[in-house]
Design a protein that fits this description.
This protein is α/β, with parallel strands linked by helices. The chain is built from 9 helices and 10 strands. Helices cover about 35% and strands about 15% of the residues. Helix 2 links the parallel strand 2 and strand 3. The longest helix is centred in the first third of the chain and has 14 residues.
């Protein structure tokens, strides 16, 4: 549920992801320049957070620290958005995934649970989730606890009980519904997930593919926040491809206004999440 006192909607744009191929989705932003241009337009239409998967010169996903740092620097220099980095997939080397935090983003993902976009049933190791949680706290980086199945929420409760809260104390959960092998993208599942959230936690929700709109509407009605973007869907409506990420952000912003919870500015989003800036280590 939304943090007490919040009457707006936190809009996160996830513009790229790690699944889609640039050759198949030409409008997908993969270079630093494309990503920054996308982020700037999305900020103008309502986004306050950018969820970043970095790509290399070959357009494929990369955790190369130099590329990650360049991306964070460019986004900070040319936007006011909260910069959230993906910490990679279960198939990536854990050392590389932890090293992403050395780029000192405002926020980063801490995946909890078994499913991913590719339907891989292998979970991240518990010890790795603990390492991510601790490393982010040491650096003052806000975790987004990314959950793709209800079991991930049980893992989150265990993580907080055994290892304490994140830096700043605010727990923010990213619920991903409708992914292959994950929890269904429907209202019943979202309601079940909300009952398992830690007390005082804020949450954003996204639905993959055709579940995008049902999850968006359900999250708004439950007082939650939204993640949208071409990472999660490349179809705007039946038979209609997404034009660009700004189109998805604009739709979400419009629905948030109809719900009388207009998009938060980046400044308001930082206040909601308790983002103060990472610590140099």
């Amino acid at each position: 549920m939304s943090r007490p006192g919040s009457h707006g909607t936190l809009l996160t744009v996830a513009p790229t992801g790690a699944e889609h191929d640039k050759a198949d989705v030409p409008r997908l932003p993969v270079t630093v320049e494309e990503l920054v241009a996308t982020a700037r337009v999305c900020e103008q239409v309502g986004a306050s957070v950018v969820h970043v998967h970095t790509r290399g010169d070959d357009t494929r996903p990369t955790l190369d620290l130099g590329r990650v740092r360049d991306t964070v620097h460019a986004l900070r220099e040319q936007t006011s958005l909260i910069v959230r980095l993906s910490t990679g997939a279960v198939t990536d080397p854990e050392a590389d995934r932890l090293r992403v935090l050395d780029a000192l983003p405002d926020s980063a993902t801490c995946p909890l649970g078994a499913a991913d976009d590719g339907g891989d049933s292998l979970p991240d190791r518990w010890e790795f989730a603990v390492a991510l949680h601790r490393a982010m706290r040491e650096r003052g980086i806000l975790p987004e606890y990314e959950v793709r199945d209800l079991g991930g929420l049980a893992s989150l409760s265990r993580l907080l009980d055994e290892h304490g809260p994140p830096a700043g104390g605010q727990v923010h959960v990213g619920l991903v519904l409708g992914a292959p092998g994950g929890m269904p993208g429907d209202v019943v599942t979202l309601v079940a997930a909300l009952r398992l959230l830690p007390a005082g936690a804020s949450f954003s929700a996204t639905g993959i593919g055709r579940t995008s709109l049902p999850v968006m509407l359900a999250s708004l009605s439950a007082g939650g926040h939204l993640r949208v973007g071409m990472q999660d869907t490349t179809t705007y409506a039946e038979g209609q491809p997404v034009r660009d990420n700004a189109q998805l952000v604009a739709r979400a912003a419009g629905l948030a206004k109809i719900a009388q919870r207009p998009p938060l500015s980046p400044v308001e989003a930082r206040e909601l999440l308790g983002v103060r800036g990472p610590v140099q280590v």
